[in-house]
Amino acid sequence: MSQQTTSAQQTTANSLASSSQHRLGEVRHNWQAHEVKALFDMPFNDLMFKAQTIHRANFNPNEVQVSTLLSIKTGACPEDCKYCSQSSRYKTDIDKERLMEVEKVLTAAKAAKAQGSTRFCMGAGWRNPKARDMPLVVEMVKGVKALGLETCMTLGMLSAEQADELQAAGLDYYNHNLDTSPEHYNQIITTRTYQDRLDTLSNVRSSGMKVCSGGIVGLGEESKDRASLLAQLANLSPQPESVPINMLVKIEGTPLSDVADLDHFEFIRCIAVARIMMPKSHVRLSAGRDAMNEQMQAMCFLAGANSIFYGCKLLTTGNPEANKDMQLFERLGINTETVASNTENEQQLHTAVSEQQHSDLFYNAAN
Questions:
Q1: Which of 81, 119, 197, 275 is labelled catalytic?
Q2: Are 241 and 205 in contact (CB under 8 A)?
Q3: Rounded CA gap, 265 and 6, in Å?
Q4: Active-site hit among 152, 192, 270, 300
Q5: Which of 194, 279, 184, 281 is nearest to 227 (CA)?
Q6: Domains of the chain from N-terminus onward
Q7: What pLDDT digit, counting tens, does each position of 262-293 carry?
Q8: CA 309 from chain center: how many Å?
Q9: CA-to-CA distance for 236 and 100, rounded, in angstroms?
């Protein structure tokens, strides 16, 4: 009898997750909590199959986009993010460093390109960039762009004017994570609001830059918070072009240093659900990879992850060495994604986005 009950529950979850509301590869911005829960509740094999099917409909399943992340200014951040080693409020072993010289940043970018990265990301431990910092930051963007790399920055909150200035300098992507669900947010950060984060993303999008936004799982949140976070991201219009899913790296001295580890299958589920809900976004297997074995990473790629950070360090936390990543890619038959940067391809991208937005408006009006 219990087997019949379990079968009925699975059938219900599968029915919800396979309804007309979940048409293959459809981009939606009206996800409801019960729909996301139905995806998380699917049997693992069914969830993986659905995610892989959607992934293959939108991407080459054997290509992964490779980025390198450099900390251009480290430590002394006034924010109180409970997971972060760079907060001035916690005693960690992070050395405080001033904003790097432009030439040193460009040297690092050249090395990243030589190792196979196609996007160079620059991060600063700021609440927001000051006026005195913007000229140097702009110079970094222009210099990295001139190397033929895609450019990305994460500098904290941005005003509309700052976003426009970075876009004019040639910045392709701006990263600003939502971190967690709106419901759990105040348990993690109190020095800026959830709306502050959404406002920065709005400024970035309005400037014409691409959005990189994801979150961190394993912050002591509940399953419903992970579902809520993904709903927040998917309901952004347009959806973020890049969605980093981070597994908490516990740092001694921070308030979350002793939080319970997140189950690895739950993390893989997050990747799969993100792929289903954001079918055309690059889902990045981000922080926490250093603690994942090759088999877990392979499962994440199967679940739809198609972007990684490459190199030995992510800002201030560890990351698998570059040669290990290339060895794993070779074993899995994965190639690194190339950059399409010519004018024709850029025009095709803008046309595709416009067509998708028109389609989304029609879909939302009809439902």
A1: 81
A2: no
A3: 20
A4: 152
A5: 184
A6: 35-41+64-244+251-266+310-329 (3.20.20.70)
A7: 999 999 999 999 999 999 999 999 888 888 89
A8: 10
A9: 33
